[in-house]
Structure formats: structure tokens, C-alpha cells
Specification:
single chain; about 350 residues; alpha/beta; Rossmann fold; Dihydrodipicolinate Reductase, domain 2; nine-stranded mixed β-sheet; six-stranded parallel β-sheet; 9 helices; 15 strands
Length: about 350
Amino acid sequence: MKIGIIGLGYWGPNLVRNFLAQKSVDKVVACDIKEDRIEMLRLKFPEVQFVKDYKSLLTSDFDAIVIATPVNSHHKLAKEALESGKHIWVEKPFTSSTRQADELINLASSKNLKIFVDHTFLYTGAVKKIKELIVKGELGEIIYFDSVRINLGLFQHDVNVIWDLAPHDLSIMKYVLKDKQATGVTACGISNYYELENLAQMSIHFQDNLCFAHFHVNWTSPVKIRRIIIAGKKKMLVFDDLENSEKIKIYDCGVDISSTESLHNALVQYRTGDMYSPKIEQTEALNCAAKEFINCIKENREPLTNGIDGLEIVRILEASDKSIKNNGMLVNLNNYSEDEIYKPGEVLHEYA
């Protein structure tokens, strides 16, 4: 299999390394418009061929194109790759709009080509374990999902902090809470430096109002935090991605209410038990993702993180834009016009 990679910025070198490590990949050609990036990586990956014009990848006999560029260029590059008969891997978020995502999904389907969206965290041992625990009923009925992803930088020039940081935790939420239907979004944020929000809070509402999800994202925090709390009626879970040895901790604690007939008569008891940290499979997520992409092509099946998954995340991101623009208004995920979505910022380069 021959793989072309477009974009050698922050994430591109990791993609080059992991696709080179795949036994089924015979050739990797990487593309970037910046000569200094190419020269730096040429020394690190002497077996890789480098080019500056991405169109040369589309006219050659490549099996798949990997797109690791700013989101505003995803649709253009992905569409050209699909029209050239190539399977595509697209970094998160999938596209800049649901309209673009729909177009790519339909185009890929008409040509029997695969779309892989790199929601990398779904391939980590930690998230796999969280999914396993929830499916087994270890936590009981899930009542809330709370996420904090904050740090100092990196400011983006084409998307706000929600579009930049929230897709990671949104993809985790969609994966581990697969049986719950998100119905609405509320969001608020602030732009302290230029027109793109650098700090934001977003909430997801679910069908029947039996579960709630909250996301805090920030480019201007003095500390780096990567933490998710998932609460069930039986047990609660904390996932701290910055922990080296105990990324997941399960707490045998909760709340028991004897009666719900009357607030004044309800007897509330708090249950606090043991805490334990389950064993997690130690694998590099990006390596697992690359294997999944290659195998889905070979086996002619949809990948775990496909275009539909990418579309669902983009729909939530779009709704968050509308909610921020309207001072935190609740936006129905199944009933809004894409034309109402505010899209500030412009991509600085065609690809970077």
C-alpha cells in the first residue's frame, strides 16, 4: 500500500512515523509547502520521499491520502483526493461544516472509498477500558460526563478553542455513551485577544434529560489539565490523561435517595467505598489508528472512526457557534440552519 501525507506541521511527523511502521505500507510520500519542515524531516526519515505540490500525490498510484492541514482546507483536499480515487484519512475536526461533511460522505460512498477521521483517543487503551466498563455496567446508568481540557496555548488562526480542543472529548463522549442521543447544545465563550474565542464552556443535552455532558476548554490557563469525570448511579470514574501509571480511577461512591415523592421527605444517603485503578493496555493510539485505517481498506468495511462520526462532531461544533453568537441559547441539534452559523477567521495558507 502507498500512502501520501499532506501537511507536516505539529501532527504530520507522527503520522509519517506511524505509517512507516505498518507492514502493509510499502511507500510513504509526504508533502508540505514549507521547505524548512521538509529539510528537518528529511534527516529524520531518509526513507520518505518529500514533495511540495500535493497534486502530484493525487495523480500518482497512491491508495490513500492522509490530510493533516488546517480545518478550512480539509474539504477541498479531501474532495480532490476522493475524486482521484483515493481513500482518505482526515484529522479532526473532519470539516468546517456539516454541508461539507455530507458532500464528502456521499462522494466516498458513490466511489466505494473509505473516510477515516482521526479521533485518536478512541484508540487509546484508557478509552477502550472506559468503554468496556460502561458496557459491562460497572458504573451503572450514566448520569453525567464532565470534561476539562485546558492549557496555555496553542492559539489557532482559523478556529476557536471549541473547534480546536473539544473534538477530542466530544469523540470520547460519543463513543462511550453510544446509546444516548444528544439533542441540544448550549455554549458561551469569550474572545480576549482577537475574534476567536480562547475560553469556552459547552453543555450537551440528551434525550429524556437523563444525562448531561459539560466541556471546559481554554487556551489561557496557567496549568495544563486533561481530565474527564463520568458518573454512574453505581460508581464513578476519573480519567486523567496526564497521569503516567493510573490514568483511570474507579470510585465506589454515589448517592442513594429513599424517596422522590417529596423533596422535603427525601432521605439522602452518601455512599463512599473503595477506589481502584484498572490495568490499561499499553499501546500507541496512532499506531492502532493507522492499522485500523489500513485494515478497513483491505476488508472493505467502515472504520471505527468514520465520516458519519466526523459529521456528528461537526454538527455539535456548528451548534456551539450558533449558541455562542446568541448568548448561550439552546440549539436543537436536529433543527437549525447551517447558514445561521458564524464562522470567523480565515486559514492563513492553503495547507500547512
